[in-house]
Amino acid sequence: MNWQTLTSVRAQYRLRREEDGTGHERKSGPHAKFSFGAHQSVMVKEAISLLDLKKGEVVVDATAGVGGHSEAILKAAPVQLLSIDADKKAVEASTKRLAHYKSRAKVIQGNFRDLDAILRRENIDLVDKFLFDLGWNREQLEAGKGFSFLLDEPLNMSYGEKPASGFTAAEILNSWKEKVIADVLYGYGEERFARPIAKAIVARREILPYTTTIELVETIRDAVPARTRHGKIHVATRTFQALRIAVNDELGSIEKGLKSAWAHLKPGGRIVVITFHSIEDRLVKKTFAAFAKKGGTLLVKKPLTASRAEITHNSSARSAKMRAIEKE
Questions:
Q1: Is the sign of the CA dihedral 157, 161, 165, 166 positive or negative?
Q2: Which of 19, 49, 169, 291 has the greatest count of CB atoms below 10 A from its CB?
Q3: CA torsion, points 41, 44, 50, 54, in degrees to nearest 10?
Q4: pTM, whole model, 2 decimals?
Q5: Are 71 and 98 in contact, with CB atoms under 8 Å apart?
Q6: Rounded to 5 degrees, what are φ and ψ at 127?
Q7: pLDDT tens-digit series, residues 143-171
Q8: Which segments within 113-245 are labelled E, that is strand?
């Protein structure tokens, strides 16, 4: 037998050994619950400072998650808040968390790429402040959708009930051409071994189509040089990032969402964005630069980063970058 046919048989045993005994756990699923304590929102103080909230303002948290930033906004000033999230479970968690703010807070399910339609539906024309936290919370790792390379799950990777792109990760792996897969891995994941990984993916699917994350992780491990399999960053990180971005059309959603936010922003209003990888940050930087030419003021010349103390307390903050712009 060649290595492709042995993938699903040996993967769990090998991964347990290589990941200090953790392996692929089967604790996730469609009934996984979101909890307030497990996920910690990033750069909360910096976000509140840059938003510069005032009494009576209309604020939109475009990425509610479990409600960390939303609650901080409501605590900071008596504003009217609309929180949005594509994930149904996140909406349920945020709704529960913000319930005691009653009429001051409303949480709805939706994708910020559809911000125009959402605001029309909510009878909101102009907004004072927008916050976009482009990270994804830890509870999504256990949502049963294949986001984690340490869990054995179906290769879905959609934030919402349906993928924004119209296709799942499994469909990419099982039907796209080798060159296109390589371009996705390099362009969205900055994966330097994109070509050999894409080649291995196509070779493996000819024998057996991909259905779960464990199969993909094993393919990646066998496709890259042995010396790279035990680095600081997990060998599958960039591939999983690239697939997630493609499935959810993240870059297209970010660009569309920010343009909609700018169109609905009041003069003197602000947009604050938190990114977590260079591809996102470059897109936000470019978009804000375009806004600045149309009557905007960049509030920070270089993106803010989390303090050393926060990074020590919350490792998710280490790659966070914050940018902000004010409309004239």
A1: positive
A2: 169
A3: 100
A4: 0.85
A5: yes
A6: -125, 140
A7: 678 888 888 999 999 987 888 899 999 99
A8: 127-133
